[in-house]
Records
---
Amino acid sequence: MASVASAVPQISLQGVQKTYPNGTVALRDVTLEIPKQDFVFLVGPSGAGKSTLVRLLIREEKATAGTIHIEGQDLSRLKRRHLPYLRRKIGMVFQDFKLLPNLTVFQNVAFALRVTEGALRHLKPKVEEVLSIVGLEGKENKYPDQLSGGEQQRVAIARALVHDPRIFLADEPTGNLDPATSWEIIQLLLQINARGTTVMMATHNREIVDVMRRRVVAIEGGQIVRDEDAGGYHAPALESH
Amino acid sequence: MHRLWNRIDFAFSSAWQNFWRNAAVSIASVLIVWVVLLALGSLLLVLHSLDQIVALEKTKASAISVYLADTTPLSSAMDFKLRLESDPRVTGVVYVSKDQAMARFRQLPALDPSVIDTLGTNPLPASLDVTVKDIRDLAAIDQEVRSSPLVDKSPATNYEPNVIDKIILLARVAGIAGLVLIVGLTGLSVFIIMLTIRTAIYLRRKEIEVMKLVGATDWFVRWPFIVEGLIVGMVGAVVAVLIVGFGYRPAVVNLQSVLIFVPLAFDPYYLRLVLAAMLGFGLLLGSMGSYLGVRRFLKQ
């Protein structure tokens, strides 16, 4: 039985449907399994349901039908008071960084530890550690508006790493960045993935997806239309037809 | 211990920041709390004084003083006393001479003795203080003694059947009016504190978003706002407590000099109760306001 348990995927969606209160069907019958340490691109046009999928994984939204398991835990049965502990397992970054403008780089990262009552005695070394992973040593006392977009996203990534997450979700992390900076962020995500963290990145960035040749899950109209290892942004089938 | 301290430190420093970040709204809510508590404290003290007066009047109720004309010889007065004592309705009669009356008068609080000395002659009449078994007989005895030639005519007795009823009515009216005022102000102050907390939450919406994202618990997010409400209640209460605490004694002393015959007294024990009640009520207002402010917003 133990071997069966270890074969359970880290993230598993079975027949997931999401209908918003206004009647919009954002996802229909989505089944997806992501094993530990996978690196997955989630692609598709705007409004296809990528962001909804991400929001379901951190239980910002609840699925209307179907089940979602993260590390064997059924999210529909997760009590509200246990939700924060799910979020601590999942590092999360966004297109708009979501940094606090009145806090320095150091304080922005430390904030995540303070508000979750993390190991405060180790706060400073921990913050320094994640800042060095993202390559921001020496910028600790800068404010977000003194940083470039790429540096701001690095701060957000550092903040997402303070709890040593087992899953890293990035929703359009390069959406506001120029191509060179986008590549730096991708390198960073690869590095995080290499450290053993599952990474899922929703993106529009065709060039990156095509060059990387990683697993690609394509969503259109709320359904998974393609799921291939070492895929590109568009399906190869389109040309062969 | 470390975590608890972090939680307290975070809650208090955030709450303090919130308070000053929207200072105008915070100060408005402090003011309204202050007004409520001032009204509450004053009402309690006024009602307590009226209670004291009623209690004192009740002990006096079974007795009347029959004032004797200055021309009445002592022997006639003693005859009159014997006649009254033989009345089955009467339980006791005490003769109070002019000098004794004066001595009593001098003992009234807040009366300047030099004022009395300037009077020269003693204007107070001698009296027979009659105690009865049944208060209801007082009116009949009052009527009978008024016809006696020995009795002073202005005034004949100190019989005032309505005084207690009047004071009780006054206390009731003051109590109801005060209660209505305080209930109204309480509702208003809870509402204003709620708005203050909502404003603070709005100003912190980005931080709250990040806190939830990185996995802060609901209570960790709520505490700073609850504490802010408590600070509002506390500050309003402390100012009101200081004013009532230091103002009560001077107020009683001043009133005593105006209302010489009203037995007002300074009651430090009751004052302490009132001040504690004000502080407690202030904190209650603050926590109710912040609870309502936080309740809906942080649900999702």
---
Amino acid sequence: MSIPLFRVLPLLALFGFATPFRVLAQIGSCGLRVSVTDMYGNRIPAERIRLADRDGSAEIQQDAVVHSQCGEHTLDVTASGARPAKVIFDLHQAEQVVAVTLGLGAVEGPVPTCTVLGEVTPDSGVVRVRLLQLFGNYSVDVVPVRGGFSVRNVDCGSYLLVAMGKTSCLGTMTLDITATTGRVAKLNLKREALNEAACTSIRPSR
Amino acid sequence: MSTTGVENSGVPVNFRDPKGLYAEPVLLGSLTLDPTNGGLEPGPGGNRDVNGGGAGPEYSLPVTGTSEGPGGALQGGIMPGSPVFSIAFDALTNDKEMFYGLFMGQQSENCESDLKKLGVTDNQIAMAALNANIINGLGVTGATTTYAQAGWGASPLYGSAVAQFGSTTVTQYMTLVNPAAAALAQLGGSNIYINASWVNGMSTSDRQAMLLHELTHNITGKDDESLQRALGLPTGAASQNIGDRLRGDCFK
């Protein structure tokens, strides 16, 4: 059965004006795929993922490619047992992966946090230490002082530590900070402890 | 609302136990053998200057008093009661049965509004009450069950909980990490671990509100922060504010 267009249009117009939320712009030259994991990279089934851009919002599925306009977006992600996460990011790739890490749900105060403590030998040349969350978006830089450095109150989880020289990367180290180490990672950034090959320069080919 | 549970309202039991019926209270972290149920029974309260700091789906009570001897008061006037698990177990079992009947029907408008915000139905609460297992968090099971298993055993975050809490047991959590924790619900499961001392010190309506709170964790798998947000409550506060809201709206 077909319905005359003149009867449908007023209804569509009414619906358009009555809708309280504008729908996310679904067409654009950019796209994203949302990866939801815990702090250690284990996939977590999200209960709800809401993506918002400047025009509106929509619920989307994790791991599925969603096309949207390029620019700033916000993700709100919830999952059973996890504390809700909100991620603001700039979408500028055709198939950009947005990594969302979910921490344990908090009660009564902060979830126990983790600490990275390190020693830096004088001959190592390390002038700055960069800590990057492997499965999330967090990163922080600290400067060694009097042969040591510390990064406190970070989420427990998996990290990549990058030892930086004045103008170069000196080496890397991966860390899993857990309860078995008392939620503290104690490191000695001797040159031989670092993966120097990870910092080898690669000249891009033409 | 009528109640069928053991009533301790306004009658804080002296857990120094002048009649000598129960175990002596123990200091933070120490353990005594409770002759009444054969389990390892840390005493109630412990150092009640210590407030929270833990994480997980437990029902924690904000501490307002000092710990000068036993009987340090919790916010809302909750005092530690008898440490005997069977008293708390019987009271909560009565509450469970009452919930099963009560939540088969419609609640007050405010209560229904809260339940809707929390994402649970009356029927879900009735069934969760029927299936809930009340477990002694300070007994043998609590001493042999990890906090990660107790809270996140049925959650996809279990691996992360193990990584962060390791082998810490429920008993250790309730005595050493967060002595103000009165109950701990398994997210998305049916188990509820309790510290009998705090439960026995609660009024009937406080206890029932706590049970409803824990059942909500069982049903939804959501943490306290999510429940607080859903109800429009401050998220930085102790989780007792959830029970306080439910008590006012559902158990007046």
